[in-house]
Structure formats: C-alpha cells, structure tokens
TrEMBL record:
Residues 170-185 have a biased composition (Polar residues). Residues 1-310 form the Kinesin motor domain. The keyword Transmembrane helix does not apply. It comes from Nycticryphes semicollaris. This is Kinesin-like protein. Keywords: ATP-binding, Cell projection, Cilium, Coiled coil, Cytoplasm, Cytoskeleton, Microtubule, Motor protein, Nucleotide-binding. One of its GO terms (molecular function) is microtubule binding. Pfam families: Kinesin. It is found in: Cell projection, Cilium; Cytoplasm, Cytoskeleton. Belongs to the TRAFAC class myosin-kinesin ATPase superfamily. Kinesin family. ATP binds at G66, P67, T68, G69, T70, G71, K72, T73.
C-alpha cells in the first residue's frame, strides 16, 4: 500500500559484472494504488480530507503528474460513469457548504484555464485570446480577463469542464492518441461571510487548485518532430521549472538557504501560493507498468519522491 518496487526490464540475473549496478529501486509514498484501484478510492485517499480545509479558509492543491499516456486526465476529469477528482471534490464541497448555510453566506466561483507554449488560454471562453498574469497590490497573482463562473450545481460544472476539456490542446503522438499538450488548471474560490452582524465583517477565502499537468516526455519515446517537438520542449521546460521549485522548497530547511525561483515559468508563478505558501498540496504521480516506459517511470518516481520532502507552514 505504500511501496513501489521498480524492476529493470533489461536486467539479466546471470550478468555478474553488472550485479552491483542494478537499477532496481524501491520508493515509499503515503499511498500507492495498483491497476485495480477505483476512482472513489483514489479520491478518498488523496483529496477528500482537503475539502474541510478549503472551507476553513486554507488553500489546497492537487497535481496529476506523470509521463504522457498514463491516465492523468482520467484521474482528474474521469468519465460520465466514473467521474474524477474535479467532480467528486466539488460535490463534497457543495455538500459541506450547504451544511453551514444557516450561519454562513457563501459564493463559489471557478475558472478553468490552460497553459500552452508559455501562453494562458481561458478554456471556458477560448475566443478571448491569450491572457496576462498580473500581480495585485497584495502580491497575489491574478489572470486579467479570465472567465469566472459561479454555480452550486456539480452537474452543471461537469458539463462546463467537459466542454472546456474539448477546447484543450490535444494532439496525437506516438505514445498517446489524445495527448494533452498543455497544463490545465481548475481554480475554485470559496468565499464565506458570517450572517451574524457582530462578526459580519470577517471573510474566509479558500482556494482549491486542481492541476492536470501535460505529460512529461522524451522526444525519442513520442517520436515528435517539428511543431510537436517544440510543444514538448515547452512542456518539459515548465515541468523542469516546477521541479526546480520543488527541489528548492524541499531543501529549504537544510544547511543552505535556497532561493525558490517561482518566476521561471507561468505555471510556477500561478502556483506560487500552492507550492510554498499557505496551502496543503497533494501530488498524484502516474506511471505506466510497461517495460518500455521504465526510464519515464523512474524519473517520475524520483520527482514525486522529492516533492514528498516539501514542508510548508500552513
């Protein structure tokens, strides 16, 4: 339940010369799921307990990370019969908010965007063109001109997200027929205000980020050329920036003070508060059991293992 053992497919047990250079590795995580795990199990173990925090005014972030074709979009969006983390967490969020409706006034607004080739596109209103990241006077990052939808109906959201996902940049590569070529970020903001006049001035704001990252890939594996190759380079560059931030954050308590370069990419700038700020963060790493993906699986597990060492002060 907590261990992943990665066996090297090219290893020969009779090869005495290479006996000490085995690439077999064991990784320990908070939770490990095999191919039999259901969407409900994954949601209950990773995300369910973050919802209460969002209502109390803490931020929460869920990442889906991994090589192309390992099921990140399935985990996050799911299908109509097996909804993913997006829908399950919003359903729980609305249920919990309705339970406090007598004492609190609440609004829930959401936006859905993609970062593709270093530009930001609004998936709920794709015709609005490329959007800019701006910092407001309090230092929080805003996206100028993004569409925000307020709703309390999970089915309505499912339709919006499915429609938004169709607008997402997807292209076939040798590794995956519908490869996501962009990072999709669903941002849900919960604002609550007490109905009692005496403390009516106080507001609680909690943000829930759900990030379906683009597949980390090696050009050799996806056989990309031309435009696909350029997209892959941009994807890998932004994932590298995210990896650098994770490295710096996980070493922060160490001997040398690390500078965390959030400005390296739009993805890390947008997620600055989620990674190093007042936030609880979960990374769901996806790997493929195929022996051809050994290298990708190894890199993904090392990446996720590093992310495990980040300690933030909530």
């Amino acid at each position: 339940q907590q261990r992943v053992v990665l066996l090297d497919p090219s290893e020969d047990p009779d090869d005495i010369l290479r006996a000490n250079r085995s690439r077999e590795r064991t990784f320990v995580f908070d939770m490990v799921f095999d191919h039999r795990a259901t969407q409900e199990e994954v949601y209950a173990s990773t995300t369910k307990n973050l919802i209460g925090g969002v209502i109390s005014g803490y931020n929460a972030t869920i990442f889906a990370y991994g090589p192309t074709g390992t099921g990140k979009t399935y985990t996050m969006l799911g299908m109509d019969c097996e909804p993913g983390i997006y829908i399950r967490s919003l359903e729980d969020l609305f249920k919990a908010l309705e339970a406090t409706a007598e004492e609190m006034d609440y609004t829930v607004s959401m936006s859905y965007l993609e970062i593709y080739n270093k530009v930001i596109r609004d998936l709920l209103n794709p015709s609005s063109g490329f959007l800019d990241l701006r910092e407001d006077s309090r230092g929080s990052i805003q996206i100028a001109g993004i569409t925000e939808v307020s709703t309390t109906n999970a089915e309505e959201i499912m339709q919006l997200l499915t429609k938004g996902n169709r607008q997402r940049t997807q292209e076939p590569t040798a590794a995956n027929k519908t490869s996501s070529r962009s990072h999709a970020v669903l941002q849900v903001t919960v604002t609550q205000k007490s109905r009692r006049q005496a403390i009516g001035e106080e507001m609680r704001i909690g943000k829930l980020f759900m990030v379906d990252l683009a597949g980390s890939e090696r050009a050799a594996q996806t056989q990309n050329r031309g435009k696909r190759m350029k997209e892959g380079a941009h994807i890998n560059r932004s994932l590298l920036a995210l990896g650098n931030c994770i490295n710096a954050l996980s070493e922060k308590g160490g001997s040398r003070a690390q500078f965390v370069n959030f400005r390296d990419s739009k993805l890390t700038r947008l997620l600055k508060d989620s990674l190093g700020g007042n936030s609880r963060t979960v990374m769901i790493a996806h790997i493929s059991p195929a022996s051809t993906s050994f290298e990708e699986s190894r890199m993904t597990l090392i990446y996720a293992y590093r992310a495990k060492n980040i300690k933030t002060q909530v």
